[in-house]
């Protein structure tokens, strides 16, 4: 008997195991270093290298040969993986020197260095468990964090010393604080100077941040975990920057803004980017590392918020600044002092700068993400087929990853300078699902919509119950031209549902006005657009959808949206599954929440408008709430408080607590059975066949 989709999806971490990722190209373009597990069911990530001339692929580091127990992770590393949504183990991150000759990585708290040409690996002695090691550009020293201290070890002499030691238990040096990692995509807190003789280091003090306690009710003998959580309207960690020299020098780099969004240090400048607490002003500074004095390079403002874009700032060989900013309704690539992309092409990220060329991702159609280059004179498309692309570029060599609805999985290709394409194979498992997905637009707003029908269903043969399957929140998408986005939706469809996935206002790829439509109201536009998508699809499929049996399911923001749907529009939605829902935005973090709703003390009415508690007495449809009790992102208090409000109002509902489960739900048995339980709930709630 073949393995069921729920089991296979859980075992393969949703088919991400075995997929190449984490690429680094050597400066001469001759080698590509990357991460990949040995199979689609192997959770242990290895380090590999491809010779682009000979096409020979080589296993460089296999963690199993190092006898390291991947379960023995320091708490800071577990938190880092949760922030990055890392589902695998083994070598999940690494850093190289400027020539890509040496690499360093942490494994089970140990610090390792590998000579890439020979493949020789050695473990370095450290005084404690290691977090985020980064090797100097010259390959001589490695900086790392242990016990909150930033230390440096000389790889030649073995000398190991602290450059900065925390002054209290709430202080760390060299690590990104919670908000930076969770909401700004900044996973690091120290940066080497190009000269390899100093580092820019973040000092974070969490003392002002309120302490929350995450208990494990299933194991009452275990103490609750204390966590500093910066909820909306409450203090953030205090962050500071210092230039720490290997000679023991320490230079402060002061800045006034609340958030440090990113930093970079290349041969042209030491740069920092800051953001005010209200996120309406972003400033780019260059810093004199000798004095710490900052010079303002540019300031971007917006009456709603300024977006954080990954990959910038950067510089061309001539020193020209590479930046992304909102202009004329679009996110545009800025080189020097001018926009080089039209406002209709929505730039999503700068991926690499190779001498005078910029590789970036952008969307014309929001369901597609393509690669482009700016070569100093013109824009050139890199990807030409339909799909979702990403990549890297160095030494005139490119690495392209491609996904589409037409092909399974992720395809990775190295493009050499002579144009020859060299594939890097994926070992991912095949889902074994035939997709029946059609992408289109629906409603008067022309919402990007995917309709997923059972493969066995004949159009017009009978109306199917409907399952809306959104995320629906700002700065995230579900409707993309790639198969992986719809595997679970297709599986639900095979159980007898017409599944609709729709991206409403707030989602990226359609310009700044579209994204900012959710300002001061995360509830109304999101819910209205799901209803509009449902009605639009029903008009396109008049004989296929049964609008008297409509359910909605979602996780995180999608969980909030699902609960919201049955509370406010029971005339449209007849059942809902809300997984890890945000129920009161005062309980969610500062950076994300205040970006859209402002400060709760200044706009309490805005928070009330987007809260689920006031609607609790209105519940009249089946509602299943699911929450991991170990969730440190959307804490279980969200679900428990909503459940209390529903109980106080005498409204029947169901709660499924997941003991020991975080926001990611990585456990195989949990992930598998969650899908099966959801189908059972939906069929019973909608009166559908249980066959």
From TrEMBL:
Biased composition annotated in UniProt, kind: Basic and acidic residues = 66-86
The record's section on Pfam families has: DPPIV_N, Peptidase_S9
The Peptidase S9 prolyl oligopeptidase catalytic domain sits at 488-687
Q: Where is this region: Disordered?
A: 66-87
Give every Dipeptidylpeptidase IV N-terminal domain span. 107-373
Question: Entry's SUPFAM superfamilies?
Answer: alpha/beta-Hydrolases, DPP6 N-terminal domain-like
Could you tell me what this protein is called? Answer: Prolyl oligopeptidase family serine peptidase
Source organism of the structure: Nonomuraea purpurea
Organism classification: Bacteria, Bacillati, Actinomycetota, Actinomycetes, Streptosporangiales
């Amino acid at each position: 008997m073949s393995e069921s989709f729920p089991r296979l999806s859980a075992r393969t971490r949703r088919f991400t195991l075995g997929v190449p990722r984490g690429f680094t190209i050597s400066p001469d373009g001759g080698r590509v270093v990357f991460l990949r597990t040995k199979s689609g069911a192997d959770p242990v990530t290895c380090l590999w290298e491809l010779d682009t001339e000979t096409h020979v692929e080589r296993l460089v580091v296999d963690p199993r040969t190092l006898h390291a127990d991947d379960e023995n992770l320091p708490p800071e590393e577990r938190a880092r993986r949760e922030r990055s949504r890392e589902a695998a183990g083994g070598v999940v991150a690494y850093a190289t020197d400027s020539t890509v000759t040496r690499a360093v990585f942490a494994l089970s708290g140990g610090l390792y260095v590998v000579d890439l040409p020979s493949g020789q690996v050695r473990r370095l002695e450290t005084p404690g468990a290691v977090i985020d090691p980064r090797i100097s550009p010259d390959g001589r020293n490695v900086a790392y964090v242990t016990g909150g201290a930033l230390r440096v070890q000389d790889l030649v002499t073995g000398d190991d010393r602290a450059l900065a030691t925390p002054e209290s238990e709430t202080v760390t040096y060299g690590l990104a604080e919670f908000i930076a990692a969770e909401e700004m995509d900044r996973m690091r807190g120290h940066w080497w100077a190009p000269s390899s003789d100093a580092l820019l280091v973040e000092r974070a003090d969490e003392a002002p941040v309120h302490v929350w306690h995450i208990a494990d009710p299933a194991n009452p003998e275990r103490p609750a975990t204390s966590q500093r959580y910066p909820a909306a309207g409450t203090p953030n960690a205090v962050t500071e920057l210092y230039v720490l020299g290997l000679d023991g020098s320490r230079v402060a780099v002061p800045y006034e803004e609340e958030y440090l969004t990113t930093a970079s240090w290349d041969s042209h400048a030491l740069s920092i980017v800051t953001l005010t607490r209200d996120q309406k002003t972003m400033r780019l500074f260059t810093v004199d590392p000798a004095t710490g004095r900052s010079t303002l390079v540019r300031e971007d403002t917006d009456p709603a918020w300024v977006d954080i874009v990954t990959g910038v700032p950067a510089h061309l060989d001539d020193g020209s600044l590479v930046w992304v900013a909102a202009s004329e309704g679009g996110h545009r690539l800025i080189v020097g002092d001018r926009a080089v992309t039209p406002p209709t092409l929505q730039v999503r990220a700068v991926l690499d700068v190779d001498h005078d060329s910029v590789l970036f991702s952008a969307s014309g159609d929001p369901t597609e993400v393509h690669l482009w280059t700016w070569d100093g004179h013109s824009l050139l498309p890199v990807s030409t087929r339909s799909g979702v692309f990403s990549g890297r570029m160095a030494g005139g060599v490119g690495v392209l990853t491609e996904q589409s609805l037409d092909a399974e999985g992720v395809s990775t290709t190295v493009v050499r300078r002579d144009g020859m394409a060299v594939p890097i194979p994926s070992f991912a498992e095949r889902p074994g699902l035939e997709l029946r997905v059609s992408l289109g637009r629906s409603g008067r707003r022309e919402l990007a919509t995917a309709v997923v029908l059972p493969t066995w269903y004949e159009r017009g043969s009978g109306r199917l119950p409907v399952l809306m399957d959104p995320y629906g929140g700002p700065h995230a998408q579900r409707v993309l031209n790639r198969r992986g986005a719809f595997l679970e939706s297709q599986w639900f469809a095979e159980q007898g549902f017409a599944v609709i996935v729709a991206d409403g206002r707030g989602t990226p790829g359609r310009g700044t006005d579209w994204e900012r439509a959710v300002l001061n109201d995360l509830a109304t536009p999101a819910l209205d657009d799901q209803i509009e998508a449902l009605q639009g699809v029903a008009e396109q499929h008049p004989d296929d959808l049964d609008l008297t049996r409509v359910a909605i399911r979602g996780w995180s923001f999608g969980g909030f949206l699902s609960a919201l749907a049955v509370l406010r529009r029971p005339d449209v939605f007849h059942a809902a599954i809300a997984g890890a829902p945000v129920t009161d935005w005062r309980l969610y973090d500062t950076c994300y929440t205040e970006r859209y709703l402002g400060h709760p003390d200044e706009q309490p009415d805005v928070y009330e408008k987007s809260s689920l508690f006031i609607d609790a007495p209105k519940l009249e449809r089946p509602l299943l709430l699911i929450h991991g009790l170990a969730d440190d992102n959307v804490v279980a208090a969200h679900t428990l408080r909503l459940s209390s409000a529903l109980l106080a109002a005498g409204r029947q509902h169901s709660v499924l607590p997941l003991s020991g489960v975080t926001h990611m739900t990585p456990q195989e048995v949990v992930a598998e059975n969650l899908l099966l339980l959801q189908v059972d709930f939906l069929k019973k709630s909608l009166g559908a066949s249980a066959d």
